[in-house]
Design brief:
The complex is a heterodimer. Chain A is of the alpha/beta class. Chain A is 32% helix and 30% strand. In chain A, the strands form three sheets. A six-stranded mixed beta sheet of chain A has the order 6-7-8-4-9-10, with helices on both faces. Classes of the chains: A alpha/beta, B alpha+beta.
Chain lengths: 322, 512
């Protein structure tokens, strides 16, 4: 059992200890499908926390337990130090569920206004937040249209805006970029980073590893109801030993020039990639400089989060995934 | 939960209703039902269309081939009929069914995956969220009922000059009827999350509870008749036939099981069929149109005081044996008017209990004896059999015979009209004495005075008459609990509460 602790400044916003949840097959059967198996988790204030895992890993179940949507679990779970059933702690949370449905009879503006008020904020405060938020998600022009007229991407963007309209201290986003076009994704990323700057804790549950890699500073990877690994992005994406070198001009005899140094040379226009050991990087630089070649950049290659993720899942499920 | 949350929940409910396409359609239909009350003016002597064209009732009725009795006010009759058709029939049956169908998806939509997640993570309890969805339905019907009832009331008041404050109760009872069914709809929707199932089961409940109620009324009616037959047999044929009658009844014991089942179902299920009766009772209470006087023994009612007279010595509309009316004006000749009502047992002599039917006196016998008595006193008394049209339930009129003895008293300078009118009902003979100076009332006026009073005479229903009328006569605010309006309302509200509590119980255990 791996404990995921990411509390930076001592204040724990989300705390989960030895959390178990079994979905029973029927009312009278005690056995069933174990969705969570002893999960331990801590999320500190101001973090952008990524929760990753394949389908059925238990990510959404964990989120729903934290928000009081699911019952019948064992262990300990707190939100702002209070149990999930406590409504006051939910006032401080903004939540964008996966595949959410907003009331089709309301306009975008009305959703923002009413949902903000339902979260306990005053009408005036909510109204002052609506305009800037709609601007950020590029929905100002559609704010007076009914939700039923919105595309999936528009609903997703509005869903995100409604999760933020009451100035929550913790924002839980379940697949926030699902169905959103690239421009929309970029604006969502910007919003998340902006929240981080303001000290808002963001808890992201996503399949899109690239995005998690780009915006999260702490990541947990789950599978089969347990945490496989956790850490910062750097910790989860180790260096591969390969180096990417960009040159002003790539000579035709680069193979000969670098013969005997490094392995798996891959030449491309404007540079090459090479696996190096120890002081081989100095030798490569010396040979390039002796030839008078201008080196533009040297970048050590890392595993992508996706590569780490797939590797971990394969390890956890030998034979199940190819 | 603060005011901001409550305001948001209310606005959400309102938007849900206003955006509903069936609601908009029903609003249009409702307005179409209201418009005629503004477009057509029903006056005592004529009908006006769009304030321009005017027609006589006789023109209309001759076209339709339906005569209007001279005893009724045609404008009131038409307006009350229209109110009954639109409120009890269109709104009370079809309207409610439409509304149930249109609002059945309120709860299932809230419980859809994605929608429930968003709502249930707000700092609002599930109890409040469910009750607000229930409230949305009430708002839906409340707005429509208000538009319909308020609109019709305003139309009739402004154009026809007919004001009927009690009519407003119809809006409340429409919401009450819908509230009972909607609670069950919410329960089914919470359990099944299916609006189709909810609609179907509510329709079944609506029909089934109506059938149960009718069956129960029939059972009670039959029991009442059997008790009457037993009593009658005992009285007319002695103990032996009474025992035989009871033995016959023993054969019906197998029906007891059905009777108990009907009792249980009737008491448990919402009494939707009582809504119309409750409405008319509430209207009576508001308008003060209840009987002026009621004989609690026989059930006979007098709806009005004699014109210009006030009931004396009766703070409750019930009397035992004798009642007086005195003039409203205490000066002049009019102050010498008087009306007196008396009642006598038809079997005053108990010397020969074996021949009861033969000795029961009739109104005609009592009148003849009285005429002889007057003639022996030297009065020139005339005896007439008069067929007065009397109200029975104020909806259906029926003939009833009164025997009138009229004579004149007083001096030549100051003659006084006198009359005594006899009628009998069940175990009693009634007579009413009228007295008025001729100086203030000619012969025709004296007859009209009596006639006006007897128009308000309402006889109880016949023993083997219509079940609905039999039930309406027993149903009331002070009736025994089986026929008690408060019991009907509170037991129905009990059903409503059980439905909502069960729905809440289920909702709180939802795992999303």
């Amino acid at each position: 059992m791996v404990e995921a602790s990411s509390s930076q400044n001592g204040e724990s916003i989300v705390s989960v200890k030895d959390l178990h949840k079994v979905f029973r097959k029927s009312l009278f059967k005690r056995s069933g499908f174990p969705a969570l198996r002893g999960v331990n988790l801590e999320v500190g204030r101001g973090q952008v926390f990524g929760l990753l895992g394949p389908n059925g890993a238990g990510k959404t179940t964990l989120v729903k337990i934290l928000l009081g949507l699911t019952r019948g679990w064992t262990g300990e779970a707190t939100l702002f130090g209070k149990p999930p059933s406590d409504a006051t702690s939910r006032k401080r949370v903004g939540y964008l569920p996966e595949a959410h449905r907003l009331p089709p009879y309301l306009t975008g503006q009305q959703v923002m206004h009413l949902f903000g008020m339902m979260a306990g904020s005053s009408s005036e405060r909510v109204l002052s937040n609506i305009g800037p938020l709609l601007d950020k998600v590029n929905m100002t022009g559609s704010a007076d249209r009914k939700i039923r007229e919105y595309s999936k991407g528009m609903q997703q963007r509005l869903g995100l805006a409604q999760a933020l309209v009451h100035d929550p201290e913790l924002v839980i986003l379940d697949e926030p970029t699902d169905g959103v076009d690239p421009v929309g994704r970029a604006s969502i990323r910007e919003m998340v980073l902006e929240l981080k700057e303001r000290g808002v804790t963001v808890f992201i549950n996503s399949h899109l590893l690239m995005e998690v890699e780009m915006i999260c500073d702490h990541v947990v990877i789950m599978d089969k109801g347990k945490i496989l690994v956790q850490g910062s992005i750097e910790e989860l994406t180790p260096k591969t030993g390969a180096v990417e070198i960009d040159l002003k001009e790539t000579p035709e005899d680069i193979d000969e020039l670098l013969s005997g140094v490094g392995r798996n040379l891959q030449v491309r226009e404007g540079g090459f990639q090479l696996e190096l050991n120890g002081n081989e990087q100095d030798q490569v630089i010396d040979r390039l400089r002796d030839r008078g070649l201008s080196i533009l950049a040297i970048t050590p290659r890392r595993l992508t989060l996706e590569q780490s993720f797939i590797g971990l899942i394969k390890e956890d499920q030998p034979g199940e995934r190819s | 939960m603060n005011g901001s949350i409550l305001r948001a929940l209310f606005q959400d409910s309102l938007q849900q209703v206003l955006d509903n396409r069936v609601f908009r359609l029903l609003v249009i239909l409702t307005i179409m039902m209201v418009v005629p009350s503004f477009a057509i003016g029903w006056h005592p002597d004529r009908v006006s269309l769009l304030w321009i064209w005017e027609y006589n009732y006789s023109d209309l009725t001759s076209t339709l081939g339906v005569p209007i009795s001279p005893d009724v006010r045609p404008d009131e009759m038409v307006i009350q009929s229209l109110q009954g058709v639109f409120i009890e029939f269109f709104a009370g049956v079809f309207g409610i069914i439409f509304c149930i169908a249109a609002t059945a998806f309120f709860v299932p939509r809230m419980l859809e995956k994605g929608a429930a997640d968003t709502l249930f993570t707000k700092p609002v309890s599930r109890t409040v969220l469910l009750l607000m969805r229930y409230f949305s339905g009430l708002l839906f019907v409340g707005i429509l009922s208000t538009v319909l009832v308020g609109g019709m009331w305003a139309g009739f008041a402004l154009v026809s000059g007919y004001t009927d404050t009690g009519f407003m109760w119809s809006a409340v009872t429409l919401v009450y009827l819908y509230a009972l069914l909607h609670a069950f709809s919410v329960l089914v929707a919470t359990v099944t999350r299916s609006s189709i199932t909810s609609i179907l089961l509510v329709m079944i409940l609506f029909t089934f509870s109506g059938c149960v109620h009718t069956g129960w009324k029939f059972k009670e009616f039959a029991n009442d008749q059997m008790a009457f037959v037993d009593l009658r047999n005992d009285m007319l044929q002695g103990e032996s036939s009474g025992r035989r009658g009871r033995r016959d009844r023993d054969r019906l014991d197998f029906l007891d099981g059905i009777g108990v089942t009907l009792d249980v179902l009737h008491y448990v299920l919402p009494k939707t069929s009582d809504a119309t009766t409750i409405t008319s009772m509430l209207r009576q209470a508001v308008e003060g149109t209840g009987p002026r006087l009621r004989d609690k023994d026989s059930g006979i009612e007098f709806l009005y005081d004699p014109e210009g007279m006030e009931l004396q010595g009766s703070s409750t509309p019930e009397f035992d044996t004798i009642v007086f009316w005195t003039p409203a004006e205490s000066s002049g000749a009019a102050s010498r008017q008087s009306v007196k009502l008396m009642r006598q047992d038809r079997e005053p002599d108990a010397e020969d209990p074996g021949d009861k039917r033969a000795r029961r006196i009739s109104a005609a016998q009592a009148a003849r004896e009285f005429r002889d008595q007057q003639e022996s006193l030297g009065h020139d008394a005339e005896m007439d059999r008069v067929s007065f049209r009397v109200d029975r339930t104020r909806r259906r009129r029926d003939e009833n015979n009164l025997i009138a003895i009229t004579w004149t008293e007083g001096t030549e300078l100051d003659p006084i009209h006198r009359s005594r009118l006899f009628f009998h009902w069940a175990e009693w003979v009634y007579w009413v004495d009228f007295s008025a100076p001729k100086s203030i009332m000619d012969d025709e006026g004296f007859e009209d005075w009596q006639d006006g009073f007897f128009r308000g005479l309402a006889m109880p229903d016949q023993r083997f008459g219509d079940i609905d009328e039999w039930y309406e006569e027993r149903f009331g605010w002070h009736s025994p609990w089986r026929f008690n309006a408060f019991f009907s309302i509170f037991s129905s509200l009990g059903f409503l509460s059980v439905c909502l509590l069960s729905a809440l119980f289920r909702l709180k255990r939802y795992d999303l």
